[in-house]
Structures are given as structure tokens and as C-alpha cells.
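User: Please fill in residues for this 319-position structure.
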């Protein structure tokens, strides 16, 4: 007896969030950290399905925390001790003392679109540009704890950093792949401590084999005859040829490595530099040795470096 249509379609497909992780798009992400975040997400789904109220998961609080802004101002002695978490200060220079420092957050998986518990990188892009427009904010620190994410998300932030009109410093706790690629565009990178991690320069494309097989068995696609290269990698994969997808991952990795090489003073000879950019992660001490970071210190040290960059800018203007 032939299978019914319902039985043919009875296949366990991943939900939207997992499909995003397993999409054909190139990702620049450190897998271990990314999988921990995915596991936490799946755990929360399990809690909701078992009856735990959505409101008790703290998702709204995490979303707000992902876009937190801290403006740090000088006290009467010139020390950076006056702190405000009022996000509105970014766009209101009248409430901000001159030579203040804005500390912005880059955390979790980097995406172009907002998620349930976090904002996409568009929020950080907006915050950076608001800080650029505030004449009393003299420097910006991007406080980073992220495994990376979408290549497009990284390039959005790299562009925003490159548009700066004042010093932008990276402060890294865990800055992998696309997150590190973002910090590489800043004026200086500071590791939060010796155990902070940096690197994972490379791209990955992941396919869901079950979905690929399901799609090949159940769908037909008709392309215009004058567009033989449209979706070429996907069409080749459906036919069992994964060479074009591998080539796409290779291209994305090479472009990423070349971008970092131009932005950072990677140390050593050619072989040593290749090893630095091979996708490995390094602790802060080794990352500094290889030229991936410039210094190691607390947020207070980062604030002192921001102050030094502001003084450097003053001297340039005076000259």
C-alpha cells in the first residue's frame, strides 16, 4: 500500500533558529561557544514545552542587556569614575561631560536581524553612529564576548567602525571569528585578562543532510536557462557534488584572512602568520605575541588607553 502524503511529509525538520545555524550562508563563528548558546536555547524551548512560563525565562532582560550602554565621565580629578547606564545619553550631548567614553556591548551570536533574546548588529551600528554624533563623547570601547556569527553581520560592523570620527577601542573577553574580525578594525584591542580568548579567523558553511535529502526527494526547481550559475553551490550539493560549497567556504576564509592581515600587525614570518590566521583560538598572552591584540588589562586600563587616544587626537588637531 503506498505511503500517504502525510507520512511522506512526516519528517523532523529543525526549528527556525537551528535552520539559521545550518543554513547555506557562510558563518564566521567559533563552534564550541556557538553550540553552547544553541544548547541553552534548546534547553529553554524544553522548559517552555514542559510548562515553565515564558515570562520566567528572563529573555526580555537578556535582550535589554545585549544592547546596554554605559557612558563613563571624568570626575573633578580627571579620573573616569562617573558612570551612567542611561542609553539616551548617546544622543544627548548636553547631558554628557566632554571627553567621556561610551562603552557598548558586542555579545552572543552576531546576526543581521534581531532575535527573541538579543538584538542584531544593527543596534550596535546605530549606537556607534549616535556616539560619533555626540561631540562630548571622545572615545568608544566595544566590550566583546561573542563567538562571532554571520559574515554579513561582521561586515556591517566593520563598516561602522571604519566610519569613525573618534577613537574606537576593542575590549575582548572572548572575541572569536566575526567578533574578532570586528575588533580588528578598531584602533586598539585590549584583552580583559590573560585567559581571554581571540582568533578563529575563518569561515564555515554547514548543511543539514536530512533536509538536503528531503528537498532533493520532494521538490523540483526550474531555473531560467540564461541563469545557469544561479544557486550553483546549492544545485551541486543536491546532486551530491560538494566541491562548489567547499570553494565558497575557501573564498570566504581567504577574504577574511586578508582583511585581518591588512588591519592588524600580525607578527612573524609567512608560516607563523598563516598559523595565526589558520582558525585557531589563542589566549591573551599568545594573541598579543602574535599581533592579534595590543595589550592586557581591566576596563580601567582600557579607559586609560581611550584617554591616551583622545590626547593623541588633540595633538593632531593642534598641529
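Assistant: Residues filled in for all 319 positions:
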Amino acid at each position: 500500500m503506498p505511503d500517504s502524503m502525510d507520512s511522506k511529509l512526516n519528517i523532523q525538520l529543525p526549528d527556525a533558529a537551528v535552520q539559521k545555524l545550518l543554513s547555506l550562508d557562510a558563518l564566521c563563528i567559533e563552534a564550541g561557544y556557538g553550540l553552547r548558546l544553541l544548547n541553552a536555547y534548546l534547553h529553554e524551548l524544553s522548559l517552555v514545552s514542559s510548562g515553565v512560563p515564558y515570562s520566567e525565562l528572563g529573555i526580555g532582560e537578556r535582550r535589554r542587556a545585549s544592547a546596554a550602554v554605559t557612558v563613563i565621565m571624568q570626575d573633578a580629578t580627571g579620573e573616569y569614575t562617573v558612570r551612567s547606564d542611561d542609553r539616551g545619553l548617546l544622543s544627548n550631548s548636553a547631558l554628557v561631560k566632554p571627553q567621556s567614553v561610551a562603552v557598548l556591548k558586542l555579545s552572543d551570536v552576531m546576526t543581521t536581524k534581531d532575535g527573541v533574546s538579543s538584538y542584531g548588529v544593527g543596534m550596535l551600528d546605530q549606537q556607534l553612529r549616535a556616539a560619533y554624533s555626540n561631540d562630548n563623547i571622545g572615545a568608544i570601547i566595544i566590550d566583546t564576548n561573542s563567538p562571532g556569527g554571520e559574515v554579513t553581520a561582521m561586515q556591517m560592523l566593520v563598516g561602522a567602525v571604519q566610519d569613525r570620527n573618534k577613537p574606537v577601542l576593542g575590549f575582548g573577553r572572548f572575541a572569536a571569528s566575526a567578533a574578532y574580525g570586528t575588533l580588528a578594525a578598531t584602533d586598539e584591542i585590549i584583552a580583559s585578562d590573560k585567559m581571554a580568548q581571540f582568533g578563529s579567523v575563518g569561515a564555515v558553511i554547514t548543511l543539514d543532510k536530512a533536509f538536503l535529502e528531503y528537498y532533493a526527494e520532494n521538490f523540483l526547481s526550474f531555473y531560467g536557462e540564461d541563469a545557469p550559475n544561479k544557486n550553483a553551490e546549492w544545485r551541486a550539493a543536491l546532486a551530491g557534488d560538494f566541491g562548489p560549497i567547499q570553494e565558497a567556504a575557501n573564498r570566504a576564509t581567504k577574504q577574511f584572512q586578508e582583511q585581518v592581515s591588512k588591519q592588524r600587525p600580525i607578527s612573524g614570518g609567512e608560516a607563523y602568520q598563516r598559523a595565526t590566521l589558520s582558525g585557531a583560538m589563542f589566549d591573551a598572552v599568545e594573541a598579543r605575541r602574535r599581533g592579534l591584540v595590543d595589550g592586557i588589562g581591566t576596563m580601567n586600563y582600557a579607559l586609560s588607553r581611550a584617554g591616551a587616544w583622545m590626547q593623541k587626537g588633540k595633538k593632531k588637531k593642534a598641529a
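For context: Residues 18-204+248-318 form a domain with the 2-enoyl-CoA Hydratase; Chain A, domain 1 fold (CATH 3.90.226.10).
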